[in-house]
Amino acid sequence: MISVPEPLQPGTMIGILGGGQLAQMLILAGHAMGFRFIVLDPNPNCPANLVGAAQITAAYDDQEALAKLAASCVVVTYEFENVNADSVSWLEERVDLPQGSELLRISQNRLREKTFLEKLAVQVSPFQKITTENDVLEAFDALGELMLKTVTGGYDGRGQARISRTEQIPDAFAALNQAKTEIIAEQFVLFEREISVIVARNRLGEIRCFTPVENLHKKNILTISRIPARLVSEVSEQAQNVAKKIAEGLELVGVLGVEMFVLADGELLVNEIAPRPHNSGHFTQNACVTSQFEQHLRAITNLPLGSTELYKPAVMLNILGEHLPLLLEKLKDLPPEAKLHLYGKQDCRTGRKMGHLNLTSDSLESLLEPLRKLGIWDAALLSKML
Fold this sequence. Notes:
- It contains 13 helices and 17 strands.
- By secondary structure, the chain is an alpha+beta fold.
- It has three domains: 13-97, Rossmann fold; 126-187, ATP-grasp fold, A domain (Dna Ligase, domain 1), CATH 3.30.1490.20; 193-385, D-amino Acid Aminotransferase, Chain A, domain 1.
- The model has no long low-confidence stretch (mean pLDDT 94).
């Protein structure tokens, strides 16, 4: 019989590695549950600081700061995967850290991630490890058109290059090789749509999935999510089963984002996993019985998982630095269904996530025209999704 600690009581201090917008939204959800928070982040003006969290301002590998965090709370979680895995390993020997360091080591390394998924018999796009420029040429000969990626550190399209012709190989390899990290070549996949599933698991092994989400990106940054994804019921169920299989294989405690490609024949390929609340899961704040942030906290504090029921169909739009000034000018023109979430970041720059907008409606098509009239987001992308 599995021994699971009693649920943590309201008033418990929870530590978070990272103080970005995901930490901010975890804290907002957690305050309603009665929890208190302390974050470790090198930025003294991080989003988490704006919503009442105590803060240790230090680097993620500062052992004195890590010791202070461990001594200040009962349980620790991380809000993004670009924290030092060795720091997490050091912490989990001293304080309850349900996500664990092994999950982090797998998810922050594309080679380890894909190899692990293959061991679970989860389908991924064919890939090869790259050491030399000639390796890229051999991969191109074997796999055809490629996505060349750094094994670590890449997100929102960073550390990636698409190779459709052999003459592109020298420049692409040189650019990625500057990072002095391993490189992976993945077969470029022509997919019908990209989806994600947010899955949660607690220590008792209870698992719940949120409705699959359909995503569109611009310049490799998520622009809009549509919920539910346009899938036949069999593929929707299969996507959730894949996410559950991964959660069980990882012995997940918390929330995990699983990104997948849907091919024309309905086949699913897992692209990557993220061991924390996910950008495409922000819709859950306004469209579901339980948000992904509350769900994550439920999992790590030994509470039963909440219902993932979808109240209404929804769309989520990311607000990037280039969107924010015009959005602020047009606040009065937002549709009445719109729920605005801003992160309070001081530096507004192109491509930076400054907030998001959630909208719910019985008819998503009815939201299209008001959103297009705003002129903030790419009208062509909106049309593709709705």
